[in-house]
Specification:
Blueprint (H helix, E strand, L loop, with lengths): L2 E3 L2 H4 L2 H4 L10 H17 L4 E3 L2 H4 L8 H11 L1 E2 L5 H10 L5 H10 L2 E6 L1 H6 L4 E6 L13 E4 L2 E6 L8 H11 L5 E6 L5 E3 L3 E6 L5 H9 L7 E7 L13 E3 L3 E5 H4 L5 E9 L2 E9 L1 H8 L2 E5 L1 H5 L6 E3 L2 E5 L4 H9 L3 E5 L2 H4 L10 E2 L1
């Protein structure tokens, strides 16, 4: 199992990042540095890493086949309604002469050609149209968690809720396939931040960014490897907690959970399924997180406002290792130490300015 990451500067060119919200001055250089430090930490802990875009830009290691690159580039090209078909064909033919690097940049930047007719220009030039070029970068690739759920080692894809990020999914599918995996593809809305698992427990959130039939599919499949499933229904639908990993983190032996949700049945309802010889059996329904943790036999650590502000719910857990924000309060770190967790403190402030943290910035493959 490897950890999938992405350097922000590759998918968020400075010509885009310069427009980041003014109330959050954003450093693209620092965002890259944070990801490189995170990769170094994983590698030092014995978990190899790779960058999603490497399979597009380089043939060193697993890579997307050049013909598949051209197909992705063809779909990436956009044309305004007044661009004649012949002009569009010439652009598509040009792709046959593009290098891998050039194709990768087209795929990521999603360029669009626009023509602006000007009668005055026609009197002084053989061409009566000005041209402008618009890019719509696949900026969300810096959060590789979103595009699929890794269920027991199997990538499961669906559709993303946000339409401006839907174009990213086909690219990630090709990268996953280049690494030797055959994706499971569902027609439902499905986002990877709504799924957590360890060796024994899986937690699946539906009701906001992931649709309920995804849970039904997983329970009917042979993909779940543990003995217990916590099926969460997001009642609150808080736009600032649009994924499960914005308020919960599953450790090896415990669940970190936003304290405001731990006992609040009006915010989250949890059903517990346990694996039996005849299949999955419902052993608890419409429980709070605290009640569900008790039924599942795992500990629960409520996260107070200070811990939530430090993005502690978006920590990344693998075995007894936990990667958590460097601003995590000492009292939480002491609790993790009592659980025999090997804690890695990570800077992730630039990603947080885009509503994602350590868990959002990582995926397993």
């Amino acid at each position: 199992m490897k950890v999938l990451l992405q350097l922000p500067s590759v998918v968020q060119p400075v010509s885009m990042s310069i427009f980041m919200e003014s109330q959050h001055p954003y450093s693209l250089w620092q965002a890259d540095a944070d990801v490189m430090a995170l990769a170094s930490s994983f590698n030092a802990a014995g978990f190899p890493t790779f960058f999603l875009s490497d399979a597009l830009f380089s043939e060193d290691g697993p890579h997307v086949a050049i013909e598949d690159m051209r197909q992705l580039a063809r779909r990436a090209l956009r044309f305004a309604d007044n661009v004649e078909h012949g002009r569009q064909q010439l652009a598509h033919q040009q792709l046959l002469r593009c290098s891998r690097q050039e194709l990768a940049e087209i795929i990521i930047n999603q360029p669009e050609l626009r023509l602006h007719y000007d009668d005055e220009l026609g009197r002084i030039s053989p061409d009566a149209t000005y041209e402008s070029y618009r890019i719509q970068p696949l900026y969300g690739l810096l959060f590789p968690r979103d595009h699929f759920m890794n269920v027991g080692g199997q990538p499961v894809f669906g559709r993303l809720k946000r339409q401006d990020r839907a174009r990213e999914v086909d690219v990630v599918k090709q990268v996953v396939a280049a690494h030797g995996h055959v994706p499971v593809e569902l027609d439902q809305v499905l986002e990877g931040g709504d799924y957590l698992e360890n060796e024994h427990v899986s937690v699946i959130n539906t009701g906001f960014r992931t649709e309920a039939p995804v849970l039904e599919f997983l329970l009917a499949s042979n993909l779940l490897k543990g003995e217990v499933v916590l099926a969460v229904q997001d009642i609150w639908r808080n736009p600032e907690q649009f994924h499960l990993d914005h308020y919960a983190c599953l450790l090896r032996d415990a669940l970190l959970i936003d304290a405001t949700r731990a006992d609040a049945a009006d915010r989250s309802l949890v059903s517990v399924y346990r694996r039996m010889s005849s299949g999955w059996q419902l052993t608890g329904k419409d429980l709070t997180f605290r009640q569900a943790a008790q039924v599942a036999g795992i500990g629960l650590i409520p996260l107070d406002d200070e811990m939530m502000a430090a993005w502690c719910a978006n920590a990344f857990s693998l075995g007894n290792h936990v990667w958590i924000d460097q601003n995590a309060p000492v009292r939480l770190l002491d609790q993790l130490a009592e659980l025999d967790c090997h804690v890695h403190l990570i800077a992730c402030a630039e990603h947080q300015k885009q509503f994602g943290g350590i868990h959002c910035a990582t995926q397993l493959l």
